[in-house]
Amino acid sequence: MLAAALRDGTAHRRTTFEIFARRLPDGRRYGVVAGTARFVDALAQFTFDDEALSLLSDFCDRETLAYLADYRFSGDVDGYGEGELYFPGSPVLSVHGTFGECVVLETLALSIFNHDSAIASAAARMVSAAEGRALIEMGSRRTHEQAAVAAARAAYLAGFTASSNLEAQRVHGVPAVGTSAHAFTLLYTAPEGRPNEKAAFKAQVEALGADTTLLVDTYDITAGVANAVEVAGPELGAVRIDSGDLGVLARQVRDQLDRLGAHRTRIVVSGDLDEFGIAALRAEPVDIFGVGTSLVTGSGAPTAGMVYKLVEVDGMPVEKRSSHKESHGGRKQATRLAKTTGTVVEEVVHRYGEPPAGQRGLAERPLTEPLVRGGEPVGDLSLETARERVRAGLKSLPWHGLALSRGEPAIPTRMVARAT
Amino acid sequence: MLAAALRDGTAHRRTTFEIFARRLPDGRRYGVVAGTARFVDALAQFTFDDEALSLLSDFCDRETLAYLADYRFSGDVDGYGEGELYFPGSPVLSVHGTFGECVVLETLALSIFNHDSAIASAAARMVSAAEGRALIEMGSRRTHEQAAVAAARAAYLAGFTASSNLEAQRVHGVPAVGTSAHAFTLLYTAPEGRPNEKAAFKAQVEALGADTTLLVDTYDITAGVANAVEVAGPELGAVRIDSGDLGVLARQVRDQLDRLGAHRTRIVVSGDLDEFGIAALRAEPVDIFGVGTSLVTGSGAPTAGMVYKLVEVDGMPVEKRSSHKESHGGRKQATRLAKTTGTVVEEVVHRYGEPPAGQRGLAERPLTEPLVRGGEPVGDLSLETARERVRAGLKSLPWHGLALSRGEPAIPTRMVARAT
Description:
2 copies of one chain form a homodimer.
Chain A: H1 2-7, E1 14-21, E2 31-32, H2 36-45, H3 50-56, H4 62-69, E3 76-80, E4 85-86, E5 93-98, H5 99-103, H6 106-130, E6 134-137, H7 147-157, E7 162-163, H8 166-172, H9 182-187, H10 197-208, E8 213-215, H11 221-232, E9 238-241, H12 246-259, E10 266-270, H13 275-280, E11 288-291, H14 293-296, E12 306-313, E13 316-317, E14 332-338, E15 344-351, E16 363-366, E17 368-373, E18 376-377, H15 383-396, E19 413-415
Parallel strand pairs in A: 6-7, 6-11, 8-9, 9-10, 10-11, 15-19
Antiparallel strand pairs in A: 1-5, 1-12, 2-4, 3-5, 3-17, 12-13, 14-15, 14-16, 17-18
Helix pairs in contact in A: 2-6, 6-7, 7-8, 10-11, 11-12
Domain Nicotinate phosphoribosyltransferase N-terminal (chains A, B): 1-114
Pfam family, one (chains A, B): NAPRTase_N
Keywords (chains A, B): Glycosyltransferase, Ligase, Phosphoprotein, Pyridine nucleotide biosynthesis, Transferase
């Protein structure tokens, strides 16, 4: 595409590409925008070195290679603040520049937004289901080794407390926490093959202090809890249960801990939890949820289904006309309308620079912000700000918007017709 | 875990960790082992630099940091050849070394195997459904930007023809191919806003020659095909259809191409295809399938569900005993039994060095191979060999094993009891 468009000069036409989702996955009621800061960061690094150009010389003519050798995105990007909720048709990102500089960004932009938004959207449902209890992301081993780092970030963005991924702490500042695995307890098997859980607990407490989390379900949970409190004392930080009927076990373990005087020892549960499993445990004495597989796989929706579409060429709206996949041409902005109570009622997508007339009694909040100007990042791209946007977004939804069941988007999206 | 085990010396006990899947996902009948070569490669690079150690100093004591500063895996790894089929309980990988050197590999090993095997397992079903027709992987934009590269490799390993991911060519040698997007056709919109598909086709043919693939469904498919052949002539390489009822459209387009004399112009279809969609198009004149989302998300099973379990300590089998998650202790090997026709009948998992007695009339093929000795890679880790293993594996399945419907594993796995 680039080679052909460079040849006849059309690569230099001014364009706008837009990222949006035609629908929310799986009967979801809202999505969470994630990946914005990662994309802006990646944009600055998106250049072609000699090795890349040498590979591309099999595919591209000399003019195209010369163009890529000098490539550096110098256009503008607008979009939703990271952490904002989105709905079908929300113009989550708009990229403005020449066709040449925008078209080569498609895969990068979509990969980041489709992955990160899928994870954050699932994570927000878990956060909402946990009603204030702590959630730890521990799914690294269930997804690609680099995707795991981005998944830990997306989970934290959506309201998780921490992650077991140390690289996510290094790269993104996500708080890192960890627990021990069954292998650690099994390691302390005595020479004659006899289990020796107490030896494992003792070693862990000696290394990390009593305020650690002991995994109590390697052999027998009741014996495990007794061993744990015997070794660490009633100041034991937490016990983790990773198998069985978590609700029943949490109650039994709470009773046992209390009987042993370990009133402040918390209970961590893990093991194939998703938002439904978390909601089902709300009435149980669980303090912390550990979530793995369902988090990093988007709990049934591993990709957000966002697309990157050319919507404007030299100021003219353009759109695909063939069956079933209509896009709405023209550069756009969005506004969210809310009642005076703060509850949102509608998303309005309108042509850039042409905000629709306000509605009596409804507050309007513009959603589209400048993210990049002349190739340089602008605005607040911090993870803490994004976390705050998710918190505020979840609070702003009408009650049915937070339901975990399959349903319609929490609020409708109104596409305001072009003035032209 | 490492800090505690280093403190009292247990970190130096000899251990075996095993990777296996307790079950196949989603009623699948077989899985494809993928990630082996990536893991062996990553193993050599798994060390801790000063920056990593500095971060870890918040978590680890001095002894642990010193251990990690010198860390280099020096043990042995055995496993299934990459591309072998696997079933529940198959010991896909065995890692032998001290507890310290093995335990820190868990996340790396599982991330690679769970991701790559999920993609390869889905891809193999698509390859089998396509019955010899070409498949192009084009899902990069639907998954994390680095996962996309591994997904392209896993798809190729399982029998895909090529990928649109150039990085996968650079890193893994996967053949790269591409087509144009709707944005390219829309770019050629004439100044007054009039669509100008012919101008786009002309630019593409001038840049890439007539043996290119023109995307014909931006506006009207019949007009698109007419424009394509008018511009490129009957030597046009291919047309791509990306929307609508692909079967009906493929027939119409084939008729139209033949009427226009473009008998050798091939038809590429894409658009939300999975193995079922591919199978449904088997009777249609489709030459090439382009597969995106469903491939990179494992077609409903985005992770292979493999686990990394400690099975042996200082020669003693160890296993977890709590509810519902039993593992089978002891270092193991596996053998696959087949009829003289080559059709496989059973997977036998047995204790290391104790092969079970042969069965009359059945051929035995050992599955466990040395992959790493003393930290150094051994054996054939090439992608072409892995592709050949998938081809041979699919051919060896009983007929019901290739059915796309939900079912039981194609062959049973027999766990031979320990001799001890």
